Amino acid sequence: MIKYIEETTDFLKEKGFESPEIGIILGTGLGQLINEIEIIKEISYNHIPNFPTATVEFHKGKLIYGKIEEKTVIVMQGRFHLYEGYTLQDVTYPVRIMEKLGVKTLLVSNASGAVNLNFKKGELMLIDDHINLQGGSPLAFKGVEKLGSRFTDMSAPYDQKINDTLEKIAKEKNIQLHKGVYASVLGPQLETRAEYRYLKTIGADAVGMSTVPEVIVANHLGLKVSAVSVLTDECNPDDLKPINIDEIIAMAAKAEPNMILLFKELIKTF
């Protein structure tokens, strides 16, 4: 993997991806932050050596380098998932590349379902902690200790200072920002009624199919991390309706402006 990382990093540096300060991963239906960026370079994933390729139709599949609020950023417009057939090492490979390019802070977004029924679709949740239900670890491979600490501490995977700042911004901007625990499952199927009850019992406030692998690797590499979930549906096991993916994407788009405002105001403080 070290050889692959070096090849990818060298390629991107040659293309002008120089010294980004902040990495951003945009989740399902959450690509409009790109419109706020002064784009300097952009490359499709399938043109980057050793990079996976996004296969989900609503994920664009581009790596973007540019400036926002006078800070240099590298943005993943579309991420990778285990349910696409990738390994956990594939899914988290871009985080390792961002770190090699110079990123110190990682901001993550995702679309998720509200397990906590006090949270409503169209609202945002700041991830305070997570539960890994994906059945594996992105650090469980031979030679991982050459890339960072094998036994990575996860007592505080999300940066408290950044999260405090986001909560302050949300209050100032009158944005409803819940705080809670995100459970990451394998997917791509949605949960059963019994599974939603289980998730609630173990302490999850929201559920999705991403984010946790990237956050684990970011901690492995010593990056500061913050993540926001856009709540696209309400997961009430006693009143569960058939899922409509188009409605989920539409709800993500409706809530996205608040997430963009939070990220932009946060980046101003760095």
Mean pLDDT: 94
Query: What's the architecture in CATH terms?
Result: 3-Layer(aba) Sandwich
- Give the radius of gyration: 17 Å
Number of domains: 1
**Apparent shape:** globular
Helix content: 25-40%
How do you describe this structure in short?
The protein is an alpha/beta fold. Helices cover 30% and strands 26% of the residues. The chain is built from six helices and nine strands; from the N terminus they run H-E-E-E-E-H-E-E-H-E-H-E-H-E-H.
Please provide a written account of the structure.
This is Purine nucleoside phosphorylase. Belongs to the PNP/MTAP phosphorylase family. It holds the Pfam family PNP_UDP_1. The chain has 270 residues and is of the alpha/beta class. It has one domain (2-268): Nucleoside phosphorylase domain (Rossmann fold, 3-Layer(aba) Sandwich). It has six helices and nine strands. It has helices at residues 2-14, 88-101, 160-172, 193-201, 212-220, 245-268, and strands spanning 22-26, 38-44, 62-68, 71-77, 105-114, 124-133, 177-185, 206-208, 224-234. A five-stranded mixed barrel has the order 5-8-7-6-9. Strand 3 and strand 4 (71-77) form a beta hairpin. Helix 1 packs across helix 2, helix 2 crosses helix 5 (212-220) and helix 3 crosses helix 6 (245-268). The radius of gyration is 17 Å and the shape is globular. The two termini are 31 Å apart. The mean pLDDT is 94.
